[in-house]
């Protein structure tokens, strides 16, 4: 919400309930020994009419999970399958989370509150259903910076520390526990369709397609797209458009998600599930975030290809209700859409207006080459070159004739804020872990929000 805007009214709904019999299981939240409020996102809460809750009420709803009035009567753990590192896994589903509430935002779009670390479900397998506090803090940092950088991301709504000791192979253990609530437009994944396709539930695929089209509305396919009136084809086009933009937005943010499995692909196009993510210390296509990604499958430069592959899996799942050629025609749009979104977002981050496709593409290529050569962190590069300043050497020509287009802000005349690279993330966590000092995290979030203000909103993609 921008300054001066009125807080939205709370407008509960529960359309998911209609699908719940075959898409989800009602579950009970864990009973935590402690509930210490660590983060409440009042900016996001104001958008859904929940900023007026007292801290006690907040904890009752977002750590004890007392139902919010008028929305889902019970938490729903969603069923899904997914390709994990390209291997099909039919045993997953919400193993440590659930959809807790649905509501309308001020713009009329559906929003959901979903959890992470809220207890076991039928899909927990042998795991504990919990989230580490460090995992929660990392998710907060990633979502705040991505939001500032114009990425369509889930938002971290609430973090409550829960007083348990957790054992993890990738954190010094025992480690502290938390329950996180996130706000996003939905939690229907490509893996949700894969599961229904695999189980040959064509009627349910149709129902889920209709739900997505009505709850997450988007544009119709281009005029010349084959099968453009069929619901599954329309959805396929929308998901391709959204994920092509998502891939572009991560590249321009210098962000490596780390685990681009099909169960982590939201059909709304929102970035979510922040595990081993990293921001780039330097421009390197081979930079890999997850220590367990030995082949570099989800390395920085392979993210667009991974999302394209995931869209292909959605097409396969939708084959049960649509012909292949129109689905493939939608899939083929991914590459050109991606390139267009990279150009648009790159110029936005530089604060420059477009000079046409060719010059814009040449500028992107020149900037990439300059970063590769110098080893400069992308955040620093974009800051130094905001509005086309500081161009030198081969960059001078590439920047020639581009005009400033972004808002002015005092930040652009200050030294660049430090990048949120791994050492910085670890330092912020260490203050909490060693001294229970939350001030460095709070200051970091304030600095990130100021960067978001300085950048302004990313422009919407144009029409077809
Ligand atoms: N500690 C845990 N307990 C139970 N299930 C877990 C745990 N950690 C991961 N899972 C499950 O393993 C699968 C893959 O985990 P992943 O980290 O991608 O998802 P997640 O972060 O738990 O949830 P989301 O994708 O909604 O962010 C999911 O089905 C998830 O629910």
From TrEMBL:
Its EC number is 2.7.7.-, 2.7.7.108. It is an enzyme of class 2 (transferase). Mg(2+) binds at residues 264, 273. The active site is at residue 263. It holds the Pfam family SelO. Its cofactor is Mg(2+); Mn(2+). Keywords: ATP-binding, Magnesium, Manganese, Metal-binding, Nucleotide-binding, Nucleotidyltransferase, Transferase. ATP binds at residues 93, 95-96, 116, 128-129, 182, 189, 273. It catalyses: L-seryl-[protein] + UTP = O-(5'-uridylyl)-L-seryl-[protein] + diphosphate; L-histidyl-[protein] + UTP = N(tele)-(5'-uridylyl)-L-histidyl-[protein] + diphosphate; L-tyrosyl-[protein] + UTP = O-(5'-uridylyl)-L-tyrosyl-[protein] + diphosphate; L-threonyl-[protein] + ATP = 3-O-(5'-adenylyl)-L-threonyl-[protein] + diphosphate. NCBIfam families: PRK00029.1. Belongs to the SELO family. PANTHER family: PROTEIN ADENYLYLTRANSFERASE SELO, MITOCHONDRIAL. Nucleotidyltransferase involved in the post-translational modification of proteins. It can catalyze the addition of adenosine monophosphate (AMP) or uridine monophosphate (UMP) to a protein, resulting in modifications known as AMPylation and UMPylation. This is Protein nucleotidyltransferase YdiU.
